[in-house]
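Please, structure for the following, as tokens.
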Amino acid sequence: MVAYGIFSSPLGKILIARSELGIALVEYLNSEKAAASYLAQLAGGEVREDKAGVEMVYHELLEYLDRRRTHLDWPLDLRWAGSDFQRRVLAATAELPYGAVTSYAGIARRIGTPSAVRAVAQALRRNPVPIVIPCHRVIGNDGDLVGYAGNRISLKRTLLSLEGVPVAARGRRIERDHMYVRAGADTEYCVPTCGSLSRQSLAGLTLFGSRGHAESLGLTPCASCRPDLHPLSA
């Protein structure tokens, strides 16, 4: 059985659906009539409205949107994800930490299919649980904010900004020069001008909005560029 509720939020109306295994849907609604089309994705499941059954996760979502929570550690039910490939994309995206971004090409590399950038983008476009699986943290290889909730770039900008990711004044690109950098699986993080980092594709990088976000993963300051001694200006 799947219980769902429709709630108000700073992002507009949101539908949250939960099965006995975990959260199955989080969807932005243009209207409550749109809920039926989203719930139809849960083919084969008994679906009923039960706001009380999902109210706790709704309040945790509000805490995230109010910057009082950085993790949504909800059990997920991805039985309705489209394919094994999509599940691999979603699993890799779920590992992106709060306040960090990588590119679609970066996700493709992480799942071992570096040429499947377009397929990764399509898989994330159909992410059944946005915010929880943070596809807003995946951006274009040139830093552009693309492909979120259809084409609602303003939502992507809002979510990244509340996590401390610097977004350019016109709101369609991150400010890469104001973000700390981790190359590949390095255990250190750098300022963006360290070595050749500023010339590298985002496909091999993870960018952080603050030193704190990088260090929360256990990363240490680069011994060469010393971001701890030469922090980036806000």
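The chain has a mean pLDDT of 93. The domain at 2-65 is CATH 3.30.160.70 (Double Stranded RNA Binding Domain).
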